[in-house]
Write a structure and sequence with these properties.
α8 links the parallel β7 and β8. The termini are far apart. This protein has 281 residues and is α/β, with parallel strands linked by helices. It is built from nine helices and eight strands.
Length: 281
């Protein structure tokens, strides 16, 4: 094989790699919702059944879209009612809500949890970061009609931490709790897909920037064995916002917070309404 033929094959190989790279960029840009969000639908006729007292509501967020939410009520309340506004992860829906509710209702807090567009019984599809933020704000404003904002705790888990951080920065809740947060989605992209430019991402979820703007107390829980969102993401957040109260949970992965003794003990402190130790569903 001559040198000219070798150069020709090298050029063809490079051209093919460039084409494949461009195609991969286009696919990543066009279909990133499928990478970030994993909705599972639930028929609207399905009746949720939980041991706790709860109310199911549909909330109109635009002319064509209703979001489904559940409000779990604490049985024993002293003084004004308090609320945890819970924003779940990217593969959950309200069918699992009962597993988290008791951690808060047992402490005298009501719990509100809702499904994103396209999740569970909620209408529509997720098509932008701005719409996710707007939906959360509409629901938060709705709940403020029933709860004084000084009695509202915003809590986000996994992908929901970016939305929760935005919500806390734009409002004035009593406190913000984040479970397994990322520094930003751009930072996650650099870790998982380092060959792609971050400007392709139209869900930047800049948790790092929003926490700088947040005026309420911030609490973070993160498992040290989390391989989905590394624990280092939380330590980086604390570096830029030193006031963050960070609780590492040794040997915990990305799930299992509600059953963890360290989490439950710290939650007693944060919510200032201790419950006796027990196994949480």
């Amino acid at each position: 094989m001559t040198k000219s033929n070798i150069r020709k094959y090298i050029k063809r190989g490079i051209s093919l790699l460039v084409v494949l790279y461009v195609v991969a960029c286009i696919l990543l840009y066009s279909f990133q919702e499928k990478l970030l969000f994993h909705p599972e639908k639930v028929g609207k006729s399905v009746k949720y059944a939980y041991s706790q007292n709860f109310e199911e509501q549909f909330y109109q967020v635009d002319d064509e879209t209703e979001l489904n939410g559940l409000l779990f009520k604490a049985d024993s309340v002293s003084g004004d009612r308090k609320l945890v506004f819970y924003i779940h992860g990217n593969a959950e829906n309200l069918t699992t809500a009962g597993g988290v509710a008791s951690s808060f209702t047992d402490r005298g807090y009501d719990l509100f949890i809702y499904d994103f567009r396209g999740f569970g019984k909620s209408d529509g599809t997720i098509d932008s970061e701005a719409r996710l933020f707007a939906d959360a704000q509409i629901l938060y404003s709705q709940l403020k009609r029933s709860y004084d904002e000084s009695n509202i705790t915003v809590l986000g888990y996994s992908i929901g931490t970016g939305i929760a951080s935005w919500l806390a920065a734009k409002n004035h809740p009593e406190q913000l709790i984040l479970q397994a947060p990322y520094f930003s989605m751009k930072d996650m992209m650099r870790q998982k897909y380092p060959i792609f430019p971050t400007w392709l991402l139209h869900y930047p979820f800049e948790t790092n920037e929003r926490l700088k703007e947040t005026t309420c107390p911030i609490y973070i829980f993160h498992g040290t064995k989390d391989t989905t969102i590394p624990y280092a993401s939380s330590t980086k957040l604390k570096q830029i916002v030193p006031a963050i109260d960070l609780t590492p949970i040794p040997d915990l992965g990305h799930t299992g917070f509600m059953k963890n003794h360290i989490y439950q003990t710290k939650l007693n402190e944060i919510l200032s309404n201790p419950v006796t130790e027990k196994t949480v569903e």
